[in-house]
Specification:
It contains seven helices and no strands. The chain is mainly alpha-helical. The protein has one domain. It is globular, with a radius of gyration of 22 Å.
């Protein structure tokens, strides 16, 4: 009987260790999503500044273009997630948190965009968007234990606060571009580099039989 208890305890520890290893593996992020989203925001911001200077199109032309692109990407992601969900045998806790976080983020994003179209001036609307970016980035960074994202979140909030007191839309756009760079692009490239190093290390270990 004592031997059975010891075996059960050993199996419990093994299961706990497996859960920890799975959670660690789950938390790896290749950063591609951050890079794509970041460069889209950065490009829209800089192109808007140039557009204001040279009067190519209506002021928010590039943001409308980004909105259409985001909608298309969102629909494609929904279809892809649905296809994955059908074949998914095991649901992970971290994955479930990320999905709910993404839903919450896009709902808040939608509310702010609608508010900007019905009365909130873009001078104030974009700083609100930046504050939302900071919140999203902080939560992701905390869950993944990824310091560059946590640091990027606080930098994004500082830039958002500064943007609140600007009277020039060009300056707001430049601050928005800086927020995309510090909050998304730089952490995304760091995450992508670490992910590639980790993947390369695993491939090497597999090849040598470790």
């Amino acid at each position: 009987m004592q031997q059975k208890d010891e075996l059960t305890e050993h199996e419990s520890l093994r299961i706990i260790q497996q859960m920890i290893d799975t959670a660690k593996q789950e938390q790896k992020d290749d950063g591609k999503g951050w890079i794509i989203w970041g460069w889209m925001l950065f490009a829209a911001s800089i192109l808007t500044v140039i557009n204001i200077r040279f009067h190519w199109f209506q002021t928010f032309f590039f943001w409308n273009l980004l909105g259409v692109a985001t909608l298309v990407i969102f629909i494609v992601e929904l279809i892809r997630d649905f296809a994955i969900k059908k074949n998914e045998k095991v649901k992970t806790y971290t994955g479930a948190i990320f999905k709910k976080l993404n839903i919450g983020f896009f709902i808040c994003l939608f509310f702010i965009i609608v508010a900007m179209n019905v009365g909130v001036h873009p001078y104030k609307g974009f700083p609100l968007l930046m504050s939302l970016y900071g919140f999203w980035i902080l939560i992701y960074g905390a869950i993944l234990d990824f310091k560059p994202s946590v640091i990027g979140a606080f930098i994004t909030w500082v830039l958002a606060f500064v943007a609140l007191f600007q009277s020039s839309f060009e300056v707001v756009m430049l601050l928005h571009a800086a927020a995309a760079l510090c909050g998304y692009i730089i952490p995304g490239h760091i995450a992508n580099k670490k992910f590639k190093e980790l993947t390369a290390g695993k491939s090497l270990n597999k090849n040598i039989g470790v």
